[in-house]
Amino acid sequence: QVQLVESGGGLVQAGGSLKLSCAASGRTFSTYIMGWFRQAPGNEREFVAAITRRSGSAYFSSYANSVKGRFTISRDDAKNTVSLQLNSLKLEDTAVYYCAASVARSSVALTSQEYDYWGQGTQVTVSS
After folding, report:
1. What confidence tens digit (pLDDT) does each residue in 19-67 have?
2. How deeply is 55 buried, as exposed, middle or buried, from its count of CB atoms within 10 A (0-12, 13-18, 19+)?
3. 101 and 33 in contact (C-beta within 8 Å)?
4. 2, 103 in Cβ contact below 8 A?
5. Is 78 exposed, middle or buried (0-12, 13-18, 19+ CB in 10 A)?
6. Pairing mode, if any, of strands 46-51 and 95-102?
7. CA–CA distance, 66 with 14 (Å, rounded to integer)
């Protein structure tokens, strides 16, 4: 069983920044594929970003087109955390953001069905 706890959400003006963090339980965090998803009211949950386990000295990340160049995903395996830096926020970024873990996959996972564990979510609200 893996527990994920997100933090860092809040209210921010358009153009501003936030950093979301997700703390994970489990002794094998370094082997998990980690992802961030979001869900706005009336919308389906959508992929935001994902990061692989380390391969050599590198991690590989993937982003939704809507956030590419503005958001950055990172992980700290020593601290069992994954973060999402949100820059140049737009009104349409308003959503509940969820951290997710995929424990069995070996490559980056882009759909919610590929993830096994989810956090409770943290609200990000962007105001004009």
Report:
1. 999 999 988 999 999 999 999 999 999 999 999 988 888 899 999 999 9
2. exposed
3. yes
4. yes
5. exposed
6. unpaired
7. 15
CA separation for the pair 105, 93 (Å, rounded): 28
8 phi-psi bin (left φ>0, alpha ψ -120 to 50, beta other): left
Query: The tokens 């990172």 sit on which residue?
Result: 74
Tokens encoding 8 = 């860092």
